[in-house]
């Protein structure tokens, strides 16, 4: 926990969003990098955010109920039938 | 099979290929539709129209955009045109994605982030973690849920998310950071062994 390069932890955490997006101005990015290099807590926070993004990318779609699937497969069957009749 | 292979397979008459696409995308289509319309029923109607459009238009899909982006644009356009939703408040303030009470008056952590410890060590196989993240997403305010689902779960670019949800890219970034910060907090609770979060 530290006050480095004139930003405190609360400000560092706010900048981390832009840092992860790659949208921070160079000056802000350097401020954040210096802060994080000196501050264990904010470094931990940044690593956790990276981990969260990675895990979120692997959760996959929610489950779909059989009923919901059936309704949509009916659409498919109708489409095939129409195709067959028109050919 | 990837999306394009599935598309070609169902065009060739493979029913199961269509089912795979439906399972993969119907939940997120409902979510996008709900972002624009008031009722779940209307949202589901919109997604049905969307799949019909896919069946009828798939042959003309040229693969310039990804299938996913094409699909999300169709559902967003259709949901938008039903126009049953009042304008929402979009937060634009990027400050304080983390609860203010985590910091003291000098802006230092009062209580630093709790280590995730072993939770992440085997994240690939950690079903608890995946379940927790999913539950955390489900509980987010709708705007955050839509943004984080499209950006981090589905992997769209910031620009694509902005286009599908009719937000500015700056808004997408702010909302995304809040959503990610909230998910982090929920996982932190799990790491603490604190009250499980349902
Ligand atoms: Zn710090």
> How many extended strands of chain B?
0
Strand content of chain A: under 5%
Q: Give the terminus-to-terminus CA distance of chain B.
A: 34 Å
Class from secondary-structure proportions of chain B: mainly alpha
CATH superfamily of the largest domain in chain B: RNA polymerase sigma factor, region 2, helix turn helix motif
Instruction: Give the count of structural domains of chain B.
Output: 2
The CA-CA distance between the termini of chain A, in Å, is 72 Å
Query: Which molecules are bound in this entry?
Result: zinc ion
The outline of chain A comes out as elongated
| SS-derived structural category of chain A | mainly alpha
- Overall pLDDT level of chain B: 87
Calculate Rg of chain B over CA atoms. 19 Å
Instruction: Supply the number of structural domains of chain A.
Output: 2
Contiguous uncertain segments of 5+ residues of chain A? none
Give the helix/strand layout:
The complex is a heterodimer of chains A (87) and B (198).
Chain A: H1 9-21, H2 26-38, H3 40-56, H4 66-86
Helix pairs in contact in A: 1-2, 1-3, 2-3
Chain B: H1 3-11, H2 15-36, H3 40-57, H4 67-82, H5 127-139, H6 142-153, H7 158-165, H8 169-192
